Amino acid sequence: MSGLSIQMPKGKKHFYQRITVLLCVTILSIVVIYAFFYLRHDPTLTNLDSRLFGMSLQHPLGTDQLGRDVLTRLLLGGQQTIGYSMLALFVALIIGVPFGLISGYKRGLLDRVFMRICDSFLAFPDTIVAIVLSGLLGPGIGNLVLAIVLVKWVNYARLVRSTVLSESQKDYVLIAHINGLSSSKIIRKHLLPHVVGHVLVLASLDLGKIILLISAFSYIGLGAQPPIPEWGSMLNESRPYFESRPELMIYPGVAIVGVVLLTNMVGDYLRDYFDVKKEVRE
Amino acid sequence: MIRILARKFIEVLIFLLFVTFVSFLFVRLAPGDPVLTILNVDELSVSQEQVEALREEMGFNKPLLVQYGLWLLKFIQLDFGESYVTGQPVMDMISMSLPATIELACGALFVMLIVSIPLGSFSALYRNSWIDKLSRMLSILGAAIPSFWLGLIFIDLFGVRLNILPTMGRDGLISLVLPSLTLGLAISSVYVRLLRSSLLDSLSQEFIRAARSRGLSEQRIFFAHALRHSLPPVITVFGVSLGSLIGGVVVIEVLFAYPGIGKLVVEAIRQRDYPLIQGYILIMAIVVFFVNTCVDLSYRYLNPEMKLKERGTN
Lengths: 282, 314
Known about the structure:
Order of helices and strands of chain A: HHHHHHHHHH
Largest sheet of chain B: none
Number of helices of chain B: 14
Distance between the termini of chain B: 12 Å
Oligomer: heterodimer
Low-confidence stretches of chain A: 1-9, 278-282
Number of helices of chain A: 10
Number of strands of chain B: 0
Shape of chain B: flat
CATH architecture of the domain at 86-281 in chain A: Orthogonal Bundle
Radius of gyration of chain B: 25 Å
Largest interface: A-B, 39 and 42 residues
Largest sheet of chain A: none
CATH superfamily of the domain at 86-281 in chain A: MetI-like
């Protein structure tokens, strides 16, 4: 596109960025997988004799107000938070992407009906839907995930639809159609690979937001219920002890910030990699 | 103008009818028997007759649609029924806590404006300077820090360790400082970068050069032309993200034990206080509609091009 001279130093910067992101993702995956195989302590076992211990060899990050090992709970909490966020994202993708593909390719009545549905879903902000759903169905992480799916799938469906709409105007789709390829094959072989990049970028940028939403709702008691270790609910449970043990506030918070920073970085990196901005501009 | 408002009004009526019916249906189908909730408040054992009597009294034995019709009739008179837990009329509880929430939201918006307009303007005017880099770092961090954690840190710092600001309840303007600061900072990270890029865009437009060639002062060019032209996209995003502001208010209110509508609904959810939850849903639907309309109208006011376009098509 524009001059090469501008892109050269950028490429170098991207190289370092890429390395950092890759390194962080690797470390995080190792940590989470490590937590699966190696757990020295029961995350929910309370032991009132060892309340609020400081750092020690046995408890690397100390214990909380009920004598539970903080590191174990932190690792497992990560699995909870990240796992549920990914689950919500995944289900939203599974619903949203096919909807967008079919609606954008077939157009007509189906598309109009679909856009109506989208508009009415967009009227609801995600936090409000989450509050309403936990109000109607009761608080819990399952209902929170349901609320996130309900709100997010529309975004993916719309994104995919608009990409497919512009893409299916192009000649190669027409030629495929003339050559007698079935609609499902055109969608799978030609259109789906084209939307993958866009969807991945949006999804990775959404992941951070979902993690923040889940931990915030767990903090106010409408998400993961104790004694399940979740970063938000861990902060909530140990709040009375912050004055004497500020570390209990620091660990889960830093964990959330770190993971969200990382997912946002991955999102930025993917955006550069797939060059989504450029295509949007065109 | 009036036609647009009228169409919006009809839209919201249909929308409200839908929302009321869905929320009504959900509440009736939801797990947990409200009759038992009411009777179990004192942990006393209840007889079957008591349950049946209350069920009859509250109208749960009538057909569903009849129940909905009766309920809707009451709703039009702004009567959402009484709270299962306190026995107070829901409308009273909501109208008592709504002003507190509006205060908090205004405080947060105030903080957001104070932070994002200067920071966004300076980072656009002095591109790649230290202030630009600072605002970039703040926005990256701001997108990753959960607002409730920021609030916890503020409470620990200003409330517990320095002991200079109240951290709980609502007692004069001073108790508004920490909640508004937390919420305002949390939302401003988006707007700093948005205002910056929008300003950069409008500063490079031709009407700025035209204004300069007319000999206007730099201040006038900035405030009367560049800033005004940069606001519509910011306001659009603001309108879209207003929902997250309403949700953010809920978390902040619980965090600071602030007696607003968010804390009210979270407690209602914990206690399965359905009339209160329904009241909250309806009030929120109205608030979101109201704000969306305001955003639409201000957009038309701020962007003269849109008015021109409309005139052209009519």
